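Lines hold sequence, tokenised fold; shown next:
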Amino acid sequence: MRIVALNPPFLPKFSRESRSPAVAKSGTLYYPMWLAYAAGYLEKCGHEVLLIDAPASGLSVEEVVGKVTAFKPEIAVLDTSTPSIYSDVEVGAQLKDALDNLYLVMVGVHVSALPEETLELNRKIDAVAFGEYDETLVELSSLFGKGDISDSGFKTVRGIAFRDSSGTIVRNERRPYIENLDEIPFVSSVYKKFLDISPYFYGHSRHPIVVIVTGRGCPFKCTYCVVPQTLQGHRYRKRSIQSIVGEFRYIKDNFPDIKEIMIEDDTLTADKKRCREFSQALIDAGLTTIPWSANSRAEVDYETMRLMKKAGCRLFCVGFESGDQQILDNIQKSLTLDKIHAFVKDARKAKIMVHGCFMVGNRGETRDTLGKTLALAKRLNPDTAQFYPIMVYPGTSDYSWFEEKGWIVTKDFRKWLTDDGLHSSVVSNPDLTYEYLVDFCNRARREFYLRPSYMISKIIQMLSNPSESKRIVMGGKSLFKYLFARSPKEECSCK
């Protein structure tokens, strides 16, 4: 069976799979990673798949329709995000108009949170695969292979909401999470087959980069984080060390120009023992020549860091979020300011760089706590930093909390971005309007990056470590366009 997996056209360099989907001021562009994993799994199960990433390829809707029409799929799987959802649905409708008998399925965090509401946007959408959708798509496709495309057949597929023959929306039970992640093909092999990797860029990482995961799900319960709450749950399910080492070897053999591997697990360091085992396995296999980075919590011990560094770890991407302890408690960060300071000190000692994430507008936020957050960012002085207002995506406990307070200023998801695709905050409280939060992010960014000491440190870093120069120039060139922009109703940055 022919299946097209599409990251639909929307805006140039728009990252649907970012935790805060937008066009990034740093120039960052995410891989369509979860869609690519599902494409690889469908191929493994015998289907003929075409993966298209329109934002990375610069394809228009017309060009995508042409490519999809030429491929003649029976099923189209479209990725979605909250700010692009109306456009995503429209692209799907155009594909349905161009291809007779095409079955249209929407996936992603937004439709996982709002499956029925998504189906109600346009009757041309046949189904939504909510939650972790790899196995759901395989089971759904098998119905077409068996010719069992009836209401009774669709009702057997866990993890879908669909429109039955009478037009009624039916929501099936949720699918259990995949336990054996080793059964899913290397996502890097899917990139190799379908994608030009050169457009994908992380502002904190060396370029070109390959992005993978070694596990799914996050054991922590931060109130704002959308992926664990909609797609993959709060239990950390892990690939085997052997599988991870095998993919590192595959990347080394098949991407000779690659400069970095990014491990996009929500929190790789949630299991420190495994981090040490994984690091030692890379050392034993002689696979330490490609630097790698990972998402981390600010509570890794020095000895673990030291071994990770020896294995090639270059950088931690860390959500510090706030400089106020009460705010950290309010968002269930389960982290203390003392631990944050100790973590940064140990990371510096281990010579692992840190990209710091700071989020404003959280529960209990005041102008005083905003000042504490900016002061913390300057005091920690990570290699790079991002400042952004909270985006309360459907499906998160924050969305419910702010909705109950009446502090979400619009439910028109088109307005969750500026015309250029940058973040536009949609949360106000009686003391802090969304305009003020966005303006604060602009100011915080300027104050952090335009410090003479910081700018001098970057020059020294480029001269002493030329391998860092390319990403500093690429990220800096994009970021500096926005540093002096003041658009109090609109802008803020995200990774």
Q: What stands out?
A: The domain at 201-480 is CATH 3.20.20.70 (TIM Barrel). The CA atoms of residues 96 and 102 lie 6 Å apart. The chain has two domains: 2-163, 201-480. The first strand starts at residue 2 and ends at 7.
